[in-house]
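User: I'm putting together notes for a lab meeting next week and I want to include a structural view of one of the chains we've been expressing. I don't have a solved structure, so I'd like a prediction I can at least talk through. The sequence is below, exactly as it appears in our construct file.
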Amino acid sequence: MAVDGYTLGLAKRNGDAADSWKNYAQQLEQQLAAERASNTAARAVAAAVIDELARVDPVNPLTDKEVRRKIFNAAYSKT
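Assistant: Thanks for the context. Below is the predicted structure for the 79-residue chain, given as structure tokens.
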């Protein structure tokens, strides 16, 4: 069975497109992993700050989880 040039060219373009999408997916996975790590670090810093705030100013409104949730939701809705 002979394969003509058009079919070979089409197969090559499709293979190149698949490779391009694979590379793009790998880049997205790397970005997601970096964002997850950054988010984990930010949460750890926030927890340490809240603990320290609760120690030095136990009646501060930011020590209330519901207040922090409202601030988070307001900021999240702006993005």
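A couple of points you could mention at the meeting. Residues 5-78 form one domain. The radius of gyration is 25 Å.

User: Perfect, that's what I needed.
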